[in-house]
Amino acid sequence: MEPSNGPPTPEQARAELREWARMNRDRDRRVRQAIAAGLQKKEIHEITGIGRPTIDRILATKK
Q1: Quick one: what percent of the chain has pLDDT higher than 90?
Q2: What residues have CB less than 8 Å from 61, skipping those under 6 apart?
Q3: How far from chain centre, in Å, is Cα 53?
Q4: Most buried residue, 17, 24, 28, 63, by CB count within 10 Å?
Q5: Contact criterion met (CB below 8 Å) for 41 and 52
Q6: How many angstroms separate the CA atoms of 52 and 39, rounded?
Q7: Where exactly are the structural domains of the chain?
Q8: How far is residue 51's CA from residue 41's CA, in Å, rounded to a whole number?
Q9: Cα separation of 24 and 38, whole Å?
Q10: CA dist 48 to 27, 37, 54, Å?
C-alpha cells in the first residue's frame, strides 16, 4: 500500500491489518523451525525484530 499524506481510511487500515495478520500467521512455527535448524535466539531477534521474551514464550508454548 502506498504511503499517503494523511491517516488511512478505515478500509485501508483493515486491509493493512489483514495483510499483517496473513504475513504473521505462521510466526510461532517459523521461530520453532529456526531454533530446530540451529539458529540462536539472538539471531532470530536480530532478523525478525521479535523480542527475546516473546521468543522464549513461543518456545515455551507447545503447539
Answers
A1: 79
A2: 28
A3: 14
A4: 28
A5: yes
A6: 13
A7: 27-63
A8: 9
A9: 21
A10: 10, 16, 11
- Distance, CA of 17 to CA of 38 (rounded, Å): 31
Q: What's the Rg (C-alpha) of the chain? A: 15
User: Please, what is the angle between helix 27-36 and helix 41-48, to 10°?
Assistant: 140
The residue written with cell numbers 504475513 in the block is: 23
Cβ atoms 63, 33 nearer than 8 A? no
Angle at 29 between CA 14 and CA 36, to 5 degrees: 150
Q: What is the dihedral of CA 54, 58, 59, 62, to 10 degrees?
A: 160
Per-residue pLDDT of 30-39, as tens digits, reads 999 999 999 9
